[in-house]
Amino acid sequence: MLNIRAVDIKDVDFIYYLRNDPEIAFWGSGKHGDTLLTRKEIEEIIINQRSTDRRRWFIIEVEDGYTEPHSIGMVTFRDFDRVARSVTIGMCLAKEYWGKGYGTQALRKFTDFLFQSYNLHRIQLDTFKGNERAIHTYKKCGFVQEGVLRQAFWTSNGYQDRVIIWAFV
Ligand SMILES: CC(C)(COP(=O)(O)OP(=O)(O)OC[C@H]1O[C@@H](n2cnc3c(N)ncnc32)[C@H](O)[C@@H]1OP(=O)(O)O)[C@@H](O)C(=O)NCCC(=O)NCCS
Fold first, then answer.
1. Ligand 1 binding pocket includes 107 (Cβ within 6 Å)
2. What's the CATH number of domain 2-168, 3.40.50.300, 3.90.1180.10, 3.40.630.30, 1.10.730.10?
3. DSSP code at position 91
4. Distance CA 80, CA 117 (A)
5. Is the CB of 98 under 6 A from ligand 1?
6. How far apart are CA 64 and CA 45, in angstroms?
7. Could you tell me if the CB of 134 is within 6 A of ligand 1?
8. Contact criterion met (CB below 8 Å) for 100 and 137
9. Which helix (H) or strand (E) covers residue 5, if one does?
10. Across-strand partners of 2?
11. Could you give the percent of the chain with pLDDT greater than 70?
12. Burial class of residue 108 in the structure, from the number of CB atoms within 10 Å of its CB (0-12 exposed, 13-18 middle, 19+ buried)
């Protein structure tokens, strides 16, 4: 079973891996310096996170009923606008879990959670045009491509178009 839970101080090492592994960082963010957080920075973000923040981190974990739940990735939201009732979300999985259906399950669960628990109207995602696996996954979950911002995403391979994808109630 797949669950999404609030991030905890015990997750520092796992998040450090997700944010600093070169391949995950490339697909998740284009691998620019701002997203390569230190353990100390991750710890501070977790300690200071409040339920009312405009930005929050969550851990995706799976359990089989026999062993302890184990973490497979994270989902986040940022730019929570309480008036427009909108957020931008992001997600990444540890590499060994890519392509096994976990991302689809997690995105559906996270989207349901956000629409219901935060009474949202709009959820936005964005990535660069070359991230076809992510774009395919988002569309499979009911997200619709809204537009393309030309050359608005910088990656370690150079500028790419930023694809804006959204879902609404
Ligand atoms: C993006 C990500 C969250 C998706 O999760 P996942 O568990 O790998 O995805 P799933 O297995 O649920 O689904 C992947 C889908 O993409 C398809 N796919 C894989 N590679 C593809 C490609 N190059 N082009 C198009 N579709 C592709 C798969 O066939 C599958 O679709 P299907 O079920 O219709 O066959 C995960 O791969 C990841 O963490 N990637 C690195 C970080 C990242 O890119 N984050 C998103 C940027 S914000």
1. no
2. 3.40.630.30
3. E
4. 13
5. yes
6. 30
7. yes
8. no
9. strand 2-6
10. 62
11. 100
12. middle
Q: Which of 58, 133, 143 to mutate to test the pocket of ligand 1 (most atoms within 8 A of CB)?
A: 133
Residue listed under structure tokens 């660069």: 128
CB 9 within 8 A of CB 46: yes
Could you identify the residue written with the tokens 């999985």? 93
Give pLDDT tens digits for 23-37: 999 999 998 777 889
3-state secondary structure of 1: coil
Instruction: Determine whether the shortest distance from the Cβ of 110 to ligand 1 is under 6 A.
Output: no
User: Rounded to the nearest 5 degrees, what angle is found at the Cα of 125, between the Cα atoms of 124 and 126?
Assistant: 130
Digit-coded pLDDT (tens) for 108-159: 999 999 999 999 999 999 999 999 999 999 999 999 999 999 999 999 999 9
103 within ligand 1 shell (Cβ under 6 A): yes
And the tokens for 137? Answer: 């996954």
- CA–centroid distance, 115 to ligand 1, in Å, is 23
Counting every residue written for the chain, the total comes to 169
Ligand 1 centroid distance, CA of 104 (Å): 8
Can you read off the two tokens belonging to residue 48?
């200071």
